[in-house]
Amino acid sequence: MGYIAVENLKQGMVLDADVHDLNTRLLLSKGQKIAQNHIRILKIWGVAGVSIVGSTDEKATDLPPLDDEQVAMVKASIDLVYKKADLNHPILKEIYKNALIQRIKGTFGDSHALSCQILPDGQTLGKPEKLKKQIDQTDIKLPDAPTIISELNQVIADPLATSNDVAQVVSRSPSLAAMLLKIVNSAYYGFPSKIDRISRAVTIIGTKEISGLALGICVMQAFQDIPDDVMNMEAFIRHSLACGMVSRILAAQNNMAQTEQLFVSGLLHDVGKLILYKYYPEHAKACLGVGFSSDTSIFQAEKKILGLSHPQVATVLLKKWNLPGDLTANIVHHHAPGSAPDPKTAGIVHVADIIAHGLAIGSSGERSVPHFDCSVLGQVVKSKESIKMVFRQIVHQFGPMDAIFSNQ
After folding, report:
1. How many helices (H) and strands (E) does the chain have?
2. Which tens digits make up the pLDDT trace of 235-282?
3. CATH ID of 2-52, from 3.40.50.150, 3.90.105.10, 3.20.20.190, 3.10.310.30
């Protein structure tokens, strides 16, 4: 068996495994001999590579000419990201290797520089005990859910909801409707014909899936006014988007039906940080500063400075907004998927976050990933070859989706 990029497929090669699109629809069956029209189909549906019978002579991705100093700088940067990882683990080692290749190639450019408040030596910022109490009493200052989110929640909860029901809710926000149509018509989905109505998009992708996408977009839009001196929101959104897209790719690899739910879970995985950035900016900046100037991750700094972490803050927001329980669990447990009701789905977001940090697409503020739950890797990732496929697909798909979100 060998994995090969679609652009390197040749007629006559034989598939060694079924090929599905990102929505788990079967495109080609195991044992099928590749013809020219098959290659066109795979490209249309955004498939980056397939498994074929026999070995391949596909060579490692060529790198541009680089001097030793440049490579050393890139390696030092990614070593910081994965400093707490057990790189003897074959899957983590493969993630590290592929992330290093893409960083050396400069595939996604440099991360945005973050403005961090570094406390002077000897100065500490008192723990906001009021915040801890507010969290415990579910009385933290949180924004009310936009009306459209409440309406979408009702549609999701209604088993008799139709595509027209979803379309009517979404269409009340022309900007949201326009963005959803841009997404479903992008190379990310690769539909062969243009979709010009939300109801049509719902019919093709699904009621819950479109509703989930709309929820994710609305939540991110609710926090766009965070000042740059706290967090560069363009960088934050790019990291969140990368995590969502990798989550969706991993869900598709695992033949899971809820690919859009996993996309939204990844997109919103750090929503707890947004609450801290917006309502407790001084403490958030202190956490960022500790993470920037020491070996402590922001996740750990939050516990030390705030007495709680961003997933705990997220719990309160997501419950108040009455978002779906499965989505909430994936977000709340993305640093500890083993404790989630469904460790596999939370584990997908966990692994996606690890990959997104390695690729340095944007930034959530973390310089290094705080924790690796190796217990879920075997459930989420089947082989080293599947990791290569994830990297190929994110390289292929990220640009079009990034352009949509950066222009919203």
Report:
1. 19, 4
2. 999 999 999 999 999 998 888 877 888 999 999 999 999 988 888 888
3. 3.90.105.10
